[in-house]
Design goal:
Helix content of chain A: over 70%
Oligomer: homodimer
Shape of chain A: elongated
Order of helices and strands of chain A: HHHHHHHHHH
Chain lengths: 206, 206
């Protein structure tokens, strides 16, 4: 916690390094990532990186922490939308027919990083936190919808568990196969589930 | 296809090597796997391994091929069971509260291998094939259930897409977090989905 630390003194340097890590990940993937390649994207001195991080994995854990701050701070629940629209938002964001190249590369790197979590405690701790964060966000949307009379009286935590599993499973299948899942079919079936189990006032409503 | 190849001549040698690969994967995980460690589990000469495989990744792709043959040949649809029981079987197999240590290690290695698929064509080809195989198996069970009047007239391919995504997502979340998903909650919600959308004669049946 020395006050001389540039990353603690200036958010700007930290942000620039995180941006460089993001860019290098998109370009080279996890396996092709090196400190040199991150440095190539970083406008400041490479020695600044080594001053703070022992290597690629330590820097990546910091990067993941930076990303989760972004998700916590920058993706608040949009209260101008009703609960049904809030529930559709992550589906619209993740279950799309195609990803642009940069986004594809980034998602692919995230899958590779997350797979490390099965044997790496620091990664595991991070992905447990993000998993819990997304579960809390989905649970909150479901709870709001129930309170506002838009959703049936489902168990919000249990329902969020299924929704999050579908979103994670869809990304995992997509990034590790050619052409699976059929996103249109998956989305159609997920809508059937949402209409028959969650929404009030649709076909089969109570 | 030279007849002198010991792996083409004797299934026994190939099986022993695949068993050794399995054992080494369970013990050391993907990251800790080396040809030496596979050889330590292999009762025959290490040179036999190098005679056929250039390195760890080539051997692992062969191993994955071996595993898929097993799934195709050894896990036929059990026609002594009705379609509902057949549909529950993969859920009972995969959505259990705990995995034994060997199985945990193996599943964890499979997640690490599958994550390679996002940047490795040979792995990608393999996991596309397994994904399609499991999708076909689920679709066949759904089709049988519809024909036998056990299931509603759902779109079997679309429904299989959601089920397979849930199974893959559950494994992926489980192997990369501490304690997610809540398997009991996930299973309960999946049962709600199956009862309300697929099964005839349950609550809310048509």
């Amino acid at each position: 916690m020395a006050p001389s630390s540039p990353f603690q003194d200036t958010d700007e340097t930290r942000t620039a390094l995180m941006q460089a890590t993001y860019d290098a990940l998109c370009e080279h993937g996890y396996a092709g990532l090196t400190i040199q390649r991150i440095s190539d994207e970083f406008p400041k001195s490479k020695s600044l990186i080594y001053q703070h991080y022992d290597g690629k994995d330590e820097l990546l854990v910091a990067f993941l922490g930076f990303m989760i701050e972004h998700f916590e701070n920058e993706v608040p629940i949009d209260t101008s939308k009703n609960a049904s629209e809030q529930l559709q938002a992550p589906l619209d964001h993740l279950l799309v027919p195609t990803f642009e190249e940069d986004r594809y590369e980034f998602m692919s790197a995230m899958i590779e990083l997350r797979a490390q979590a099965s044997h790496n405690e620091a990664y595991r701790e991070h992905f447990t936190k993000t998993d819990q964060l997304f579960h809390r966000q989905l649970t909150a949307v479901l709870r709001t919808g129930i309170e506002h009379g838009e959703f049936r009286a489902v168990d919000p935590e249990q329902t969020a568990e299924l929704l999050l599993t579908v979103l994670d499973g869809a990304i995992f299948r997509r990034m590790t196969t050619d052409g699976s899942p059929d996103i249109q079919a998956l989305r159609a079936e997920l809508n059937e589930y949402i209409h028959s189990r969650i929404l009030i006032g649709d076909n089969g409503s109570e």
